[in-house]
Amino acid sequence: MALRPFPLNPLLTAIAIAYRNPDLTLIADQVLPRTPTAAEFKYLKYVLSDGYTIPDTKVGRKSAPNEVEFSATEVIDKVVDFGLDDLVPNEDIEADNQGVDPLGTATAYLANLVALAREQRAAALVFNTNSYVAGNQATLSGTSQWSDTTNSDPVAAIGDALDVPVMRPNIGVFGQAAWTKTRRHPKLVQAIKGTAQGAGMVSRQEFAEFFELQEVLVGAGFANSAKKGQTVALARVWGKHAAFLYRDRAAGPQAGVTFGFTAEFGSRIAGNMDEPKVGLTGCQRVRVGERVKEVVCSTELGYWFQNAVA
């Protein structure tokens, strides 16, 4: 069997796949579900009008049915390699660590950072003007923002927005800051709870049932925007926005349509190799990575509220 330039370690790979930082709620895999692909992949994007333009279907007794033609654009893309390394001194591995595995700990931290980087990429793609057609987005400001509990009306705004895309969205995506203020808006509480009292909060399930959605996803992760060595500046990855998307987990190359997906070549990997020239007794280089590409393939299948709250 050919030698790998970077040997994989099955034990570390298992840790990398299973690890989730309990302090973060990462939703990228739910918003843009992973789809196995080759390193270079392609998909067909059909013309929107082909599925909605009604031809003359009447057939005469001695005539042939009208012919229609479907056109599609082949989109070619490829996954991108993402990964991180950490050097673990051999003296740390050989020391009595009271049951703590330095290699496993390094793998867990690397896996968390790789996942957080993916979360940031997904948020930047989903909450982006270019990911929606012109009529499927709104920028809220001042009294229209849902943090203005006196003048704004998220019930009407969201209800109307859900009717705009050609396929009605079935999931809601909120940044934590947007969700916290939206869920306690008096008009939303009154409408869902069926009470004149505006105080209180609605749950994700109540919100989903009220607007006839399958799921409400809330991105609660933090990321540090400061450069190394500077004072930590934490901010929510998903910001203060909200979007409503049509998601079909079963969508594939030949059938189905969905707002977006994540092309994934293989699975997340983790491994270690000797670094004998680093440190007095050498080190182990631990690596965690994945080959993925986040894609928005149907800009007509979502509606985005930029700056939903102040």
Secondary structure elements and pairings:
Layout: H1 10-18, H2 28-31, E1 34-36, E2 40-46, E3 72-78, E4 80-89, H3 90-94, H4 102-126, E5 137-139, H5 154-161, E6 171-175, H6 176-182, H7 186-193, H8 204-210, E7 215-219, E8 222-224, E9 234-236, E10 242-245, E11 260-264, E12 269-275, E13 283-296, E14 302-306
Parallel strand pairs: 1-11, 5-14, 6-7
Antiparallel strand pairs: 2-3, 4-13, 6-10, 8-9, 10-14, 11-13, 12-13
Written overview of the protein:
The chain starts with 9 loop residues before the first helix and ends with a strand. Helices cover 24% and strands 26% of the residues. The mean pLDDT is 90. With 310 residues, it is α+β, with helices and mostly antiparallel strands. It has one domain: phage-related protein like domain (phage-related protein like fold). It is flat, with a radius of gyration of 24 Å. The protein has eight helices and 14 strands. Strands 1, 4, 11, 12 and 13 form a five-stranded mixed sheet that branches. It has a five-stranded mixed sheet with strand order 5-14-10-6-7. A two-stranded antiparallel ribbon has the order 2-3. Helix 1 packs across helix 4.
